[in-house]
């Protein structure tokens, strides 16, 4: 029976049993396994890891763990002292963040769309589909299911810690620096379709009586044709943004 020492740093301890948090963990094994598989057997999904260091050297997920190895696992691509050249575990995310969310995060999906982010959500996605779409469309998978993030297809993903809706948005906004990228009235909150600016005459039959007289700016979803204007929902959005900003 071989063994290796694992140390998980910072927020990665969230995924460990309390008795193992912030400690060096001796892990015994009698099989040949990649460091990715061994770390995930200890509870930490690969999508949460930014850097791996074994015996003082930066390594990839396909490294085969050996008896006597000392493994340091970091959440971010930061250089610990004395590590030497670093190996990226995944490419930097390309461009503006795009998301796909599991069935537990419907309100968060609406918030992200409201802020102008391309966000896929259905309450009947299967895990296999979530992983496949995340991979094929280079979308960040947000989930409350740790097991889903352990699927090898998933390159970009994050486990949403909070169970409170607004705090979830604050968490994701901080994680992906979203507040500087917001574009309200870009995506439909209902279907994620793109919005287009339209004239009053074009939408007059589709809005409540008197709305066209009280507002001058309207947007319509190019997919489901839902109409938006700067009414009470817009004010709520602004209040939410202000609260998220204060929570940073």
What is the gist of this entry?
This protein has 248 residues and is an alpha/beta fold. 26% of the residues lie in helices and 19% in strands.
Essential attributes:
8 helices, 19% strand, alpha/beta, 248 residues, Ubiquitin-like (UB roll), four-stranded parallel sheet
Structural commentary:
The protein has helices spanning 35-41, 106-114, 127-136, 146-149, 165-175, 200-203, 211-214, 232-246; strands spanning 2-8, 24-29, 51-54, 57-58, 70-74, 99-101, 119-121, 140-143, 157-159, 195-198, 218-221, 227-229. The mean pLDDT is 92. With 248 residues, the chain is α/β, with parallel strands linked by helices. The protein has a five-stranded mixed sheet, with no helix packed on it. Strands 7-6-8-9 form a four-stranded parallel sheet, with helices on both faces. The protein has two domains: 2-74, Beta-grasp domain (Ubiquitin-like (UB roll)); 99-246, no CATH class. It is elongated and about 75 Å long.
